[in-house]
MFS transporter
Amino acid sequence: MAGIKDEYRFFCSQPRAMRTLLLTNMAYAFAIPVIELFIGAYIIRKSDDVSLVMVYQLAQGSGIPVTFILNGYLLRIMPIGWLYAAGMIISGLDMAVMMLLPQLEMAGIALIGFIMGLSYGFFWANRVSLALTSTRDTNRNYYYGLESFFFTVASIIMPLLAGYLIAATQKLGWLGGNINGAYRILTGLVILLTLTASSIAIRGKFKNPPSARFIYFKFHRLWNKLLAMAALKGVAQGFIIAAPVMLIMKLVGSEGSVGSFQSAGALLSAGMLYILGRKTSSRHRNAIFTAGLGLFVIGAVVNMLLFNAAGAIVFVACMVFSRPLLDLAYFPIQLGVIECVASKERRNQFAYIFSHEVGIYVGRLFGCMLFILVARFINEDAALRYVLLAVAVVQFASILVARSIQKDQEWCEVSGGEPIVPQQLKEPAEL
């Protein structure tokens, strides 16, 4: 109990804006596992076509950069907390619309995915902006460690409950044995959680970023390296979210299995993530990033060699650890580079947030299209077995980019949590 009180006091010692943002994300964290896991499972159940999950992911990815542009202009006239809340609310309503469709065809799935992308665009654009202004380099490992802890705990509880509800509806005759009824209950829960998170965000006293130009085409070489890292991250992003659902539904069996495996793995990683966030510093980020990438490759190799229920379970277990480790290391690196390059080029920080999303989208477009083409013109097994491994190996190249970024950041050291002023920076020729 004394240890818990110490951790609570440490949390209360953080800036108010950071605490409010963490509470907002904690509430929304319980909605995200349902949206990510069970929309994919619902598409497979209704359409019996695994490749349509990637169509959904591609459409979703296409909607995100569109909203980033819109968000950049809306920030000039609307509070950032309201835009952040709008993204969360739209995601719940979009899930409700999908459950009301009588049939799932490619056009409908693409439209639903695009609207979900719009919601994620508002969510991610403003989430990164708020994290950038609410934290400093000295407390970002703690911030992302605690946030990852929230998301991991949610990914333990929600998939288990949702999977049990769907399985019990089918096997025990709950709701008259109507599985669609179980999905509608989950949708109602998601809407309730998004409204709760939105109310916290709206009450937060967040400052909007300065109103300025945010679309540029030429950047400092350090930012170009981060864009390369973002593209590599994007190639794997859709797979990290969708592949566990597709593999379990195809090789293991049902939504109940999806929830059970996700929850069991997340239980093991929750405490580890909090400790890493609390005890590590910026010098440990490359090691954490390498560990996350290594787990992704190991899971993909085992899945390729076995390609059965056991292989799917190993892959999901690796993903449960890999994804939060990658986020814990990647996001602080991203924010540090934004601060560094923005001070050098004297540009609005949102310009880099938007540019980063474009880099993510380019990679995501390549990864999703590769999966869809292989699934359609060869077969789904080849896509799930070999493309997954190819994507893992390609993303492993991010290690080299991350190390190069770390070396280049030496000219933009952070002192006391604040970037040094532009005139103190070395000239580009010295970098």
Q: What stands out?
A: The beta strands are 414-415, 418-419.
